[in-house]
Structures
1.
Amino acid sequence: MYGYSGHDSMYGGYGNDSMYGGYGNDYISGGHGNDSMYGGAGNDTIIGGKGSDVLVGGGGYDILYGGKGSNTDRDKFVIGSEYKGSGYATIKDFFGHVNDHFHIVGHELDTIQLGKSDRYSFHQQNGDVIIKYRGTNDWAAVVENVTYAELKDNIVYV
């Protein structure tokens, strides 16, 4: 499904869905299945649902929920440089102890870079982890209700 520009609402079904919000403030819900959801530019809300889902906000102030899954489901929250200077993602339900993973993509959008952990810094603030672009005050993401100790083993740099 493609939302293009505008404020779109998209709902997946029982299969494996791919949904692209495009420009605008979108609401994307995966439903059942292993879904891939991309918000695009704008302030998006993305909800995975049941299954192993991929959630990509894409800039703006986004809210990402992995959704209901089992201990065998593995949600992937993908964060890159698209938030630098233009918002951040808030991840509401990261459960590293039940297979969720947090993917941080390379700093430049047009190349894939391996092992670029030095581009981000992690800060514990109350019960949340703030992920910043190193050397700036720009936030990439807030991972709610988790400690850095719980998060660090579930970060994949690509």
Note: Residues 106-115 have pLDDT under 50 and may be disordered.
2.
Amino acid sequence: MSKEVPFKVRWLSGGVPDHWQIVEPRRIFKLVKEPERPGDIHLTPSQKYGVLPQEEYMKITGARVVQNLSGTQMQHVEPGDFISHLRTFQGGLELATMPGKVSPAYTVLRPTEAVYPGFFKHVLKSPGYISQIASVTDQLRDGQTMRYNEFNLTWLPLPPLDEQKKIADELDRELTEIDEFIADQYRLLNLEAYSKVDTHPTPTN
């Protein structure tokens, strides 16, 4: 390991197991600029909802997204691709789970066979990683997408593939349990509020 590596992975403050690799991102993520294909649906990457069809995003949020100008060449994305968008400096990169097309202003990264996308879905949205990418480039603060050369400034942990899957499955399970717990708490609060409401009419003379 070179002397420069510790600086590039300082966001991993807790360290990593000895058998994990610390790698330059270009080793495991390739920049792709594939033209849109006939029938591709327009996808919108978002911090809160991930990557979803633009129409669905507008229905959920009520927001009006700027439509693609006629003649503008969009980029094709595949499931498993990661997308750097205009708010990456706030929420990390987003994982595409369906094929489609995105704005040419975005940076599309395709993982190699050494990557389990479900693991890096968590890594590339972790608070430590987001803090690090915001510190290595000022352009992100201007609302610009993170370019490939900027993405490569922050080195990444690379566990064995089977371990990546195991960790991802565990994190997904824990997050599901947390979401269910929060939903239960909301239901209890609503029931409590409802029980305090006097639903019986007040007798009148």
Note: Residues 1-5 have pLDDT under 50 and may be disordered.
